[in-house]
Amino acid sequence: MKKNDFLRDAGNNTRLAHIGSEPSAYHGFVNPPVVHGSTVLFPDMATMEGRSQKYTYGTRATPTTDALCDALNELEGAVGTILVPSGLAAISVPFLAYLSAGDHALIVDSVYTPCRNFCDTMLKRLGVEVEYYDPAPGAGIETLIKPNTKLVHTEAPGSNTFEMQDIRAIAEVAHRHGCVVTMDNTWATPLYFRPLDFGVDVSIHATTKYPSGHSDIVMGSVSANAQYWPQLEEARILMGICGAPDDSYQILRGLRTMGIRLEHHQKSALSIAQWLEGRGEVARVLHPALPSFPGHEIWKRDFKGASGVFSFVLKTDAANARRKSHAFLDALTYFGLGYSWGGYESLAVLVSLSDRTICKAPSDGVVIRLQIGLEDVVDLQADLERGFAAAAAA
Question: The domain spanning residue 339 has which CATH number?
């Protein structure tokens, strides 16, 4: 029996330790080597004309990028995976692969802001009709589907405000109308949610985040099922997009510890979220794993875990919102002020929801997003207490 056959029944950490690794192919070394290369030589003209060898040019694939794609295919349950330079590229490339002028695309309103910017600029310039929809309706999305609807984009939980979506119900409706369903699954990773198992056709991931885990790599991945893989791979080749071998090696290395890191992120984040619920300075905590959160039952039904990113609403009126939120954030020490997440360090950022058309900003305060890193919870709580004291004094 092959190793991959054993791995299908293995636990997460066992799988992460072994996927994308074939030591026998590399003289016994457990990590695949980093192959730097553009030109690939052919033994003769017949092979060159027929492209009948595995590697033909550096942009198509290398042993290093193949190792990472193999690992991600195993995690996602996908037929094929492409590597792209960033998480945003992991959204824009499939959109360009599946959409044409005159098509209609449904994009969830709680989407990652750079995705919205791409849709409102480049997609519209290319003649694609973009419509944003409420994340809540589930199967009710059918009322929004038009004869020219070709793509439904989902994200669960939603960026910054963490709205949950009934992914399976949405996918079933979309497929009845011949739409491709894409999902940004960066928050949960395929360890805690496998989009393709719930009817999604294309799973999008900013591997910058948890697969990397060390805040030093920018990369994205897109994994597709059998129906939509050929179009995705064709778009990647036509656009000349490829993953760098050094970055691929680092992501593959990060995958080995992702399960252990996610367990720690999850435990610490939930502990802090529960603690924040008891703070008088907090109007609401936006974390799907909390029973108080509106989308908790969907999360509990479909997801196997939660990651380390959530938000809370700092209680303040509009007149004092800017001053108090800035005072809170400026007083933090362990929490850095930074946009990314998924690394070992904790981060905080003031969220702007001014671009929303349906999921408007809360009226009871300002939204602050936290990335809970690998530090000790007691230290992070003390840091947040300093922030609350500074906000109260501002």
Answer: 3.90.1150.10
Which DSSP helix (H) or strand (E) runs through 350? strand 347-350
Question: Which residues form the domain of 110?
Answer: 3-254
Residues 228 and 270 in one domain: no
Same domain for 273 and 205: no
**Residue 239, Cβ neighbours under 10 Å: how many?**
14
3-class SS at 35? coil
- Residue 63: which of 40, 37, 35 has the closest Cα? 35
Answer yes or no: are the C-beta atoms of 370 and 348 closer than 8 Å.
yes
Whose tokens are 């070394």? That residue is 29
Cα 23 from chain centre: 29
Contacts of 278 (CB under 8 A, 6+ apart): none
* Distance separating alpha carbons of residues 242 and 261, to the nearest angstrom: 27
Q: Are residues 181 and 175 in contact, defined by beta-carbon separation less than 8 angstroms?
A: yes
pTM for the model stands at 0.94
Q: Which single residue is written with the structure tokens 């000349």?
A: 240
Hey, what are 180's tokens? Answer: 């491709």
Amino acid present at 54: K
Domain count, the chain: 2
Instruction: Tell me how far apart the alpha carbons of residues 116 and 306 are, in angstroms, rounded to a whole number.
Output: 25
Q: What is the pLDDT of residues 166-218, one digit of tens each?
A: 999 999 999 999 999 999 999 999 999 999 999 999 999 999 999 999 999 99
